[in-house]
Structure formats: structure tokens, C-alpha cells
Fold this sequence. Notes:
Number of domains: 1
Number of strands: 6
Order of helices and strands: EHEEEHEHHE
Amino acid sequence: MQVFFGSKTLLLMSAGKELVWQTWDNVYIVYQASSAETHLFNETTELILKSLKHQPLTREELNNCVVASLGITGSELLAEDMEFAVSRLVELGIIDWSADVETGP
């Protein structure tokens, strides 16, 4: 499983920008043209992708976005669930880790 490094950010890859979505309640059926595969995503995975659509985010920033969107506390979102979803999206080539990001002065 991917280890989250504090100074690294996650970013949406071109494959993630070309996904075709169909929603049924809280189930997301997603066609990935780059691999010609169809995936089933849950709401957490959908929110991860939605959060990364506009800018790369650190693991903490991403977690905060997902927690806020779900309207829950951070303790209610299991770290294992986030790690699994992020690792799977990296494996699919939809998102990836960037190089270390320099923090401002």
C-alpha cells in the first residue's frame, strides 16, 4: 500500500481527466478510456477525484476535503479507507504522487 509522505502531493493524471461517469445513488460507474476499463467507485473515491480536479493536494489537504464534503469528522473516515482508495487510483493511473513540493518562505 502507498505510504503518504507529508511533502508530496497527489495530482490528477490525464487519464483521470477523461473519465466518463454514470451515477446510481452513491455508486459511481466510471469508464476509463485510457485502459478501456469500467470501474465501480464509492463516494469517497469520487470525492478524492473531485478534490484533485482543480489542484494537486497533500494527503492532509485531500483528507480534509473529503471529510468536509462527507460532513463527518476526521475520526469517522478511516485512514485505511483513504489509503486503499488512493493506492487503487494510483495503480489505475488516474492519480499519482508528485515530486517533493517546496514550501514557501
